[in-house]
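Q: Predict the assembly, please.
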Amino acid sequence: MFIVLLGAPGAGKGTQAKRVSQRMGLPHVSSGDLFREHERRGTELGQEAQRYLSRGELVPDSVTSAMIRERLGQPDSRDGAVLDGFPRTEPQAQALAGLLAEVKGQVDHAVLIRVPEDRLVERLAGRRVCENQGHVYHVTFNPPRQPGLCDQDGSPLLQREDDQPETVRRRIRVYEEQTRPVVEFYRRLGLLREIEGDQGIDQVTEDILHALQLEVEG
Ligand code: AMP
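A: Predicted assembly structure:
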C-alpha cells in the first residue's frame, strides 16, 4: 500500500509519517530526510540540493524524482511505503504514478493534514531536530525530557537552517503555489482524505489511521 502524506511545512507530515509507518509496517520515505542525508554524506546530489534547501526552494523535479525512484526500488518498499514530502509538484505526482505503474502499483491514499497558517509558523519556529537521527521535537508542544537533548539517543537538538522565519515564509509560499495543485490532483482521482492537523499528535495519528481504515473497508 502506498500512502502519500500532504500538508504545508510544519503540518506534522514527518511526525505522523513515522507513526503511521510503524503502525502499518511500511517504510517511511521522506524526500527531505533523503536530501539531508545526502548533504551529511557530502554527495554531489547533497551539494546540489543544499543550495535549494537553504533558500526554502524546491529541488528540481528531475533530481527529486530520480532520488525517489532509487529509494522505492529498494526491496523494503516494493509493496508499499508512507511517502512524506514527495510529491510536492504536479510533475512529481505524475512521475510517481508512472514509476509505481512499472511495478503494477499505485498511490492508494493521499492524506492532507490541514493546519492554519499562523500555527505553522509557530510550530516551525519552535521545532528542534536531533543531530544524530533527526528525531523531531517542539520546545513547547513536544518538548524533550531534558531541554536540548534527544530522548531517544541523547544527541543535541538543533534548529534546522530552513526553520528561520524568513525561510519559513518562503516555504509556505512555495507550498501554496507548487504543492496545492498536488492536493487537487489527488482530489480529482478521488484519493484525498482530509485530516484536522491542529490537534494533539496522538489524535492526528488516530484520525489518519481511521481514515485509512474507512477507505479499506469502504
Ligand atoms: P522537508 O523536510 O519535507 O520540509 O523538506 C525540506 C526541503 O527539502 C524543502 O524545503 C525542499 O528544499 C527540499 N525538498 C523536499 N522534498 C522535496 C520535493 N518533493 N521536491 C523538491 N524539493 C524537496
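Residues 61 and 111 are 21 Å apart (CA to CA). The beta strands are 2-6, 28-30, 81-84, 107-114, 127-130, 136-138, 157-158, 192-196.
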